[in-house]
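Hey,
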Amino acid sequence: MNELDMADASMGRDASPRLARFGPFFELAAADAGDGGDWHSVSELLEPGLLADRVEYARATIEARSPEREPVTDVRAVASTMALGLFARLLSPVIGAVLAAEPAMRADPATTWLRTVVSGPVPLRTSRPLVAASPDEAVEHLVLPLAGAMSRQFRLSMRILLGNTAAAVVGACHVVSHVEPGLAGQASALRERMLSPPPLRGTGTTSGPFVRTSCCLIYRLPMDYICGNCILVSRQTPTAQRIAGAITPARRMSAQRRNIDFGQPPFR
């Protein structure tokens, strides 16, 4: 593992308890969480080999957890789904910090570290002092470089990846609004401000119920899941009908146990 500036990192320890009230996607790991762990900086994730390893890990995990152990061969859908979670993990702490008037991690790919885990939100830490929160810089310096690398390596449209970025922004704003209703107005304003200009202009609705203009492709994976903000805005669309018709009895039973109703998918 690359040498870290642990003295600087210790200055960011107090961020996690304050932002933890918004949930695990908003937390930063303590500075000493890096000891003996499989941590990689965002800069390292831009390398083709490591990025391919992360996507393959996600593919194997999805396959192992599918109700019928269905083969997962759509690597583009896996990469997009992984990207959505990764973007949300990188943006949520910064969005939470700016809305709560707290300091945030510096938007530096070389000093922003992520750790591979079997399930749950990816642990996130910084090896630099906290600074004033800037979601725009987090998008520019952390998310967009990753989106570009994934687009090139997995033949994913940047439109899809920018849509994933927008969904991550909206999701973080929604969580903050839900946990602290007093911040709802600020969260709505931040969402509109971030989604109105480039690079996120045109990725989805800037106010009200969020509906994106691109598909994250998760419906292609055996996860019994369709996004509530999907571009498939009507259950009567051919794609919606095809998805519902392709559900096997075993997967339908598994979904019912988890309160997923394929007769009423979360389309608007």
